[in-house]
Amino acid sequence: MTALKNDRFLRALLKQPVDVTPVWMMRQAGRYLPEYRASRANAGDFMSLCMNPAFACEVTLQPLDRYPQLDAAILFSDILTIPDAMGQGLYFETGEGPRFKKVVSTLADIEALPIPDPQKDLGYVMDAVSTIRRELNGRVPLIGFAGSPWTLATYMVEGGSSKDFRKSKAMLYDNPQAMHLLLDKLAQSVTSYLNGQILAGAQAVQIFDSWGGSLSAAAYQEFSLAYMRKIVSGLIREHDGRKVPVILFTKGGGLWLESIADAGADALGLDWTCDLGEARRRVGSKVALQGNMDPTVLYANPQAIRSEVARILASYGTGSGHVFNLGHGITPEVKPEHAGAFLEAVHELSAQYHV
């Protein structure tokens, strides 16, 4: 494989020295970019965009072409590819988000679920990873990703998005045996899926635990973190002669940072409700930290964005081990030039912390 021209993202995740704080944005290939909207229109719909490796590559590279400050590319895909490959029938309703043709509601439903083969059942994702990696030509590292078992389970049980996770939590408390079986199957699926991405060319991977923060402290440990720990222990951690860093991101997980830091990953993603400096004090040198600007700051003027970047950098302080990111995905209404001002500010203002 081609040597990396810019590896500061990977170095920061491993707490190695860097010249400036690396930065990327969750959902950086998305609807805020006019070029993405054009590609999506050409593809016909979101799933056609995801399932065509050429389109997936095209939109993955778009933010990098617009913003040379980005220190990583992230695979363009969706966390719900695994439930879809399990036969749930993923589709998207305009303005409604993801939906499944089948829902999981009984132990028998769960017992019937297959564990997808990454090459046979999710080959379009593996093809996208290898295509993107080739087209990047060493420009920046490529991040692969998957949803956490708990997050995927909520969509499969609810049949789509949910505000209160009523059905998922009812199963968790009424029938923990069924929920544990579902989570175990999903953990096996995520492990093989991420390993497939790594073998196809992903140089770091992130597990998105979008809904772990909806659980009680005890339920989080048993039904979310335990399965992410299992995944991390089964991942390929070195490939192409380099370590493959793993990032765990639990939205709303600020109360449990110490436990998450003990799960075996290299880095923790933080949402914007955490104080970055306090998080660093709590986890010490055990893991790197990623985050954590509130994405809605990007609605503000460039000077206000710059001020918030400066505050967060100062909160983390000197030394490596910080990857700057938003505390969640960039939103469709953000002006592209505001995202550019954010990225420029990170590199410009962070150099003083890496002398």
Overview of the molecule:
With 355 residues, this protein is α/β, with parallel strands linked by helices. It has one domain (8-354): Alpha-Beta Barrel (TIM Barrel), CATH 3.20.20. The protein has 16 helices and 11 strands. It has helices spanning 8-13, 34-43, 46-51, 53-66, 81-88, 107-111, 118-121, 123-136, 149-158, 166-174, 176-200, 217-233, 257-261, 276-283, 302-316, 336-350; strands spanning 73-74, 90-93, 97-100, 142-147, 204-209, 238-239, 242-243, 246-250, 267-269, 288-293, 322-326. Strands 1-4-5-8-9-10-11 form a 7-stranded parallel β-sheet. The longest helix has 25 residues, at 176-200. The model has no long low-confidence stretch (mean pLDDT 96).
Provide a count of the helices.
16
Query: What does the main sheet amount to?
Result: 7 strands, parallel
On the 0-100 scale, what is the average pLDDT? 96
Summing up helix and strand content along with how strands pair, one would put the structural category as alpha/beta
The helix content, as a percent range, equals 40-55%
